[in-house]
């Protein structure tokens, strides 16, 4: 099994809360950043996706905290995709300290929205696969 896609981010001073750890909203932003970096690395142009009338949407987001992240820490955020047969798919993110310790998990249930009909497309995996030059980064067979 190959390792999931990962990006490294540094916690900036303006992202910390009064307890001096990463504010909860930034976990979602970091997960979004990792997911879009993964999509780009897979060769998908979000501009082209939107231009074709499709937009990625999150239907549910869950954050599980394990160890705090503090200002100046560096964190690796993975992006691992899980596909089924329906209109939705899952994207899992692990936040790891530089020592490998798990800081947090962020999981999304997502879909692709047809921007004209405002409905989820029936086979989002097919839509991502047809646009990707490296679909394996999205957990899809080439």
TrEMBL record:
- EC assignment: the record states 3.1.2.-
Its keywords, alphabetically, are: Hydrolase
- Entries under Pfam families matching the protein: 4HBT_2
CDD domains reported in the protein's UniProt record:
4HBT
- Taxonomy, superkingdom: Bacteria
Protein's UniProt keywords contain Transcription regulation: no
Q: Does the keyword Ligase apply?
A: no
Q: Show the GO MF annotations.
A: fatty acyl-CoA hydrolase activity
Q: Which InterPro entries match?
A: 4-hydroxybenzoyl-CoA_TE, HotDog_dom_sf
Designated name of the protein: Acyl-CoA thioester hydrolase
* Organism per entry: Nonomuraea jabiensis
């Amino acid at each position: 099994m190959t390792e999931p896609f990962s990006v490294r981010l540094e916690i900036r001073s303006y992202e910390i809360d009064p307890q001096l750890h990463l504010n909860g909203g930034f976990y979602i932003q970091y997960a979004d950043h990792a997911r879009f970096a993964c999509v780009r690395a897979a060769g998908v142009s979000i501009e082209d996706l939107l231009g074709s009338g499709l937009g990625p949407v999150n239907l549910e987001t869950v954050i599980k905290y394990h160890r705090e992240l503090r200002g100046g820490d560096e964190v690796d955020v993975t992006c691992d995709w899980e596909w089924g047969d329906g209109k939705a798919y899952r994207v899992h993110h692990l936040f790891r300290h530089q020592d490998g310790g798990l800081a947090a998990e962020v999981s999304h249930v997502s879909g692709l929205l047809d921007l004209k009909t405002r409905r989820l497309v029936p086979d989002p995996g097919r839509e991502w696969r047809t646009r990707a030059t490296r679909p394996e980064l999205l957990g899809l067979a080439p």
